[in-house]
Design goal:
This protein is α+β, with helices and mostly antiparallel strands and 211 residues long. It has helices spanning 32-40, 79-87, 100-103, 156-159, 167-171, and strands at residues 12-15, 29-31, 50-53, 56-60, 66-70, 74-77, 91-94. It has a domain at 12-97. Helices cover 15% and strands 14% of the residues. The longest helix is centred in the N-terminal third of the chain and has 9 residues, at 32-40. It starts with 11 loop residues before the first strand and ends in a 40-residue tail after the last helix.
Length: 211
């Protein structure tokens, strides 16, 4: 939208959330070179939104094997800040998610960016999504240090038996936690690998509000 707003194209964006609740819930990590080139196309300096330029990732496996991975170009950035800067002068309609039939005659082209489930495109015959948790932590200088535990930023109820893990070890991937647990396998047939009807439905119902 930022690249086309001063062109001969009339571009309109729709955001289902109201403007005060507009957020970016996807990963804030990216490839620095790609975003740098992308920002240049709209006259922006990606360094203005850069949070951390990764150098190394420290890995500690369950069997206490440790190793480092050199990071070339992997970084974290202020994704929401960049998005808001991109669209600040664009025509965005907040709090509305129109049906395809409502807008298909009004535009020459429709780009569907509605999340993990594309509302305007045909549904995939086999598809599933993995629920994930993301924490956005806001703190003042000096609140966190190398001895800070997860219980200092997350409630004890949510952490259960992991409250004493160090924040520093979590951020450096040295906590010893299992890196990934494929819970989704419990929702698919062990032989055919097709989604089980107990967890998935081809029709939208009260028990299955999402498709």
């Amino acid at each position: 939208m930022a690249r086309l707003k001063d062109s001969e194209h009339d571009v309109t964006g729709y955001e289902r959330m109201p403007s005060e609740r507009h957020d970016s819930i996807c990963a804030w990590g990216t490839i620095k070179k790609e975003l740098t080139d992308f920002c240049k196309k709209t006259g922006r300096d990606f360094n203005d939104f850069l949070i951390h330029d990764g150098k190394e990732m420290h890995v500690k496996m369950n069997d206490n094997v440790k190793f480092d991975i050199g990071l070339k170009g992997l970084c974290t950035y202020n994704k929401l800040g960049l998005i808001k800067d991109f669209i600040k002068d664009c025509n965005v309609i907040y709090g509305k998610a129109p049906r395809l039939a409502e807008i298909e005659n009004d535009y020459d082209m429709i780009v569907d960016c509605t999340g993990f489930n594309r509302s305007y495109l045909p549904k995939m015959e086999q598809d599933f999504y993995l629920p994930t948790y993301e924490y956005k932590v806001e703190y003042e200088n000096g609140v966190l240090n190398k001895k800070s535990t997860l219980s200092s930023i997350i409630s004890q109820t949510e952490l259960q038996n992991k409250s004493d893990l160090l924040v520093n070890e979590m951020l450096s991937h040295q906590s010893g936690l299992y890196p990934w647990i494929p819970f989704y396998k419990e929702t698919i047939d062990s032989i055919s690998k097709f989604p089980l009807s107990d967890f998935y439905s081809k029709k939208k119902t009260i028990n299955f509000p999402l498709l």
